[in-house]
Write a structure and sequence with these properties.
- This protein has ten helices and six strands; from the N terminus they run βαβαβαβαβαβααααα.
- With 219 residues, it is α/β, with parallel strands linked by helices.
- It has a six-stranded parallel β-sheet, with helices on both faces.
- Strand 1, helix 1 and strand 2 form a beta-alpha-beta unit.
- Helix 6 packs parallel to helix 10, helix 7 crosses helix 9 and helix 8 crosses helix 9.
- The protein is globular and about 50 Å long.
- 42% of the residues are buried.
Length: 219
């Protein structure tokens, strides 16, 4: 299956770079580009892409509002230069299927698109590690004039296996599925199955919730 992607960013150079990276993937195709949120909204309704890559700061309609409007129907991955914790929380609450920093690199960009289609929520490892260290005692960041982000809630814990705890610790360290597989000498599919089991047992919505549990429990 070819994954159809819509790009939404007001920087033409960024859109061009994303197109080059994603079109080079054998299973991904960029179907169109939008320079603002309103255009992205219209294109999404018309083209029905599998994934939308949306910048946070865009004219007419920003990426967070775009995600709120489309997140229930489309898979939206938020990509931004602003790695503020408040934006991460707002994006996930709005229904984002991922949150990446623009400096994350080509491999993670493609992985985020594939993860979104698979129903996973990929968060930039840099954000995951910093955010969860802050959860262990520091105050959350906030944008200028904004309010502090709420502490993510992790549900009741059902006992994890030793392997599941090992994987949760690696998630908390910011490792991707591919890196976890290499570290533990298991397949990427096995990692995904373990993560699904961990999410169910913890009542976590995504890997950020898993990592939060690992940090807070000292697993």
């Amino acid at each position: 299956m070819t994954i159809r992607v819509l790009l939404a960013d007001d920087d033409e150079a960024i859109r061009s770079a994303y197109r080059i990276i994603l079109d080079a993937q054998p299973d991904i195709e960029v179907v169109n580009e939008a320079a603002d949120g309103e255009a992205a909204l219209a294109l999404a309704e018309r083209l029905r892409p599998d994934v939308i890559l949306a910048d946070i700061r865009m004219p007419r309609l920003d990426g967070l509002e775009l995600t709120r409007r489309l997140g229930g129907e489309f898979r939206v991955v938020v990509v931004t230069t602003f790695d503020l914790d408040e934006y991460v929380h707002e994006a996930i609450r709005a229904g984002a299927a991922g949150f990446l920093l623009k400096r994350s690199g080509p491999a993670l960009l493609a992985e985020a698109v594939r993860s979104a289609v698979a129903g996973d929520a990929l968060i930039s490892p840099q954000i995951t590690v910093r955010l969860l260290r802050r959860l262990s005692g520091g105050a959350p960041q906030r944008p200028a004039g904004g309010r502090a982000a709420e502490r993510p809630q992790v549900g009741p814990v059902e006992e994890l296996t030793a392997r599941e705890k090992e994987i949760a610790r690696l998630v908390a360290d910011g490792a991707t599925n591919a890196e976890i597989a290499a570290e533990l000498f298991i397949s990427a599919g096995t990692v995904k199955n373990h993560l699904a089991s961990v999410q169910r047992k913890l009542g976590a919505r995504n890997r950020v919730g898993i990592a939060a549990w690992a940090w807070e429990s000292g697993a």
